[in-house]
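Standup notes
- HV: blocked on the assembly model, inputs below
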Amino acid sequence: MRADARKNHDHVLAVAGAVITEHGVDASLRDIARRAGVGLATLLRHFPTREALLDALLRTRFDELTATAGELATSNSPEDALVSWLRDCVTCAREYRGVVALMAAAIEDAESALHASCVTMRAAGTRLLARAQAAGAARTDIDGTDLFALVAALAWLGDQASFTPRSDHLFDVVASAILASAESSEAEGERRPRARS
Amino acid sequence: MRADARKNHDHVLAVAGAVITEHGVDASLRDIARRAGVGLATLLRHFPTREALLDALLRTRFDELTATAGELATSNSPEDALVSWLRDCVTCAREYRGVVALMAAAIEDAESALHASCVTMRAAGTRLLARAQAAGAARTDIDGTDLFALVAALAWLGDQASFTPRSDHLFDVVASAILASAESSEAEGERRPRARS
DNA sequence: ACCTGAACACCGTTCAAGT
DNA sequence: ACCTGAACACCGTTCAAGT
């Protein structure tokens, strides 16, 4: 990449981070380009989609999350490691308001620039979940996709101004559901779970 | 209302229901007006905001939900009544893709045309929750706003194509958290809950 | 190589002018 | 009373023309 191109790339990224932090993930790309002092077409040439821009902004965080998952798997109890990592994920996914909806779409859209990061994140979560399940610390009727979905839902709740004050508490509520070791996967339907045959 | 205005009103509403069912809640109002054969300004005169249009579309469902809450409170066990009603809520909030985000914003925006419906819905849920809590069937550290938030989160999950296949299962997971009678409100932090002093 | 202005087809808002 | 076309200020996409 040419020196002037590199400079544009980095400057646009810095401005985009500031604008998206303020206005959320649907911020006007034209506005970002304007504030960065480049043409809109230049922004689009460096980051061909909104997802590509977000992935560039979050790449470092995603890598940190993956590294953290590896460390937690050896340094903490299966239960603590899982919950602590989930909290980190929610915090990360909340960094830019609205990004979690893009991530939900990206997880099964191989064309999305966010796809690889989301898949990696789900895989790291799946490993921590499996470890907790093997230790009897997490319910066994959920998988990595469910975990990703629950994290996404919690991040979404944090994005909504009306729910933000309760989002930490709601994290605990959902976390307790994940940790409930052998909780009935038939919480309703049958009023009282029948004894195992 | 004049007869021709009434006819426009009803026809626009019918077309809007079809278009929003197909394209979600961010469907182009211009497109709706076009398909209804009226000017965009006419649509805006009948429904001054997107929320007003949605409220008109969902009004019947909201009223049904309130009525159902009353019936369930007398005809079913506290636990069954709560879970059954929550399921109805999620189904309702999923009728139009994306509407749950508008509802989340409307619950604390008194100016929104959806505000009253959301507040009524939260109140009905709060009553069913209190009944279940009094019966020892629901955890006591959540309130009506938390319940509204959890329903919204589940509806949001159902809106995301990648999570839709698991949305029923995720409902059960979250429902089990709500029903866990005296589940620790400190699921993490302390690894093992200390004995009550 | 890299950048950019301009044209394009959209969007929701607003209002003067019509019936 | 009610309706509407048109002007307005936006949006993201695309590309021919410049350096």
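- HV (later): unblocked. Residues 1-2, 4-5, 8, 38-42, 45 of chain A lie near DNA strand C (CB under 10 Å from a C1'). Chain A has two domains: 1-48, 49-191.
- Next: hand off to the docking folks.
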